[in-house]
Q: What sequence folds into this?
């Protein structure tokens, strides 16, 4: 009976060791992924700051107000001729201003509109 218990203990110790090794591997992968994500976040944040610094000064205050109020939902892509935030149809004048790279806010939801880079010459 004692031998049977000793065999069980040995098996459990082996299982514990395997589980600890697997946990260590998972922790290593998580740390690597975290480092990659933190690096990507730093790059994206720097790109955002650079883009924000290029905004015209007369427009910057309104952009800051919307960005502060809406956070990550402050920007909306133009989808066809509608706001990607609320799907409200945009006026021809708004589309013209967007095509001339002028800042345009959706009159319905207040998002800053932008033309996606992959519009394919719409």
A:
């Amino acid at each position: 009976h004692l031998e049977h218990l000793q065999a069980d203990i040995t098996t459990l110790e082996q299982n514990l060791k395997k589980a600890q090794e697997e946990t260590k591997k998972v922790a290593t992968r998580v740390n690597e992924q975290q480092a990659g994500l933190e690096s990507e976040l730093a790059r994206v944040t720097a790109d955002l700051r650079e883009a924000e610094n290029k905004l015209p000064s007369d427009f910057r205050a309104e952009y800051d107000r919307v960005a502060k109020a809406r956070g990550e939902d402050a920007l909306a892509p133009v989808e066809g001729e509608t706001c990607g935030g609320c799907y409200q149809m945009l006026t021809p004048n708004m589309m013209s201003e967007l095509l001339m790279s002028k800042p345009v806010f959706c009159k319905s939801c207040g998002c800053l509109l932008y033309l996606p880079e992959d519009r394919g010459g719409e």
Q: What stands out?
A: The first strand starts at residue 75 and ends at 79.
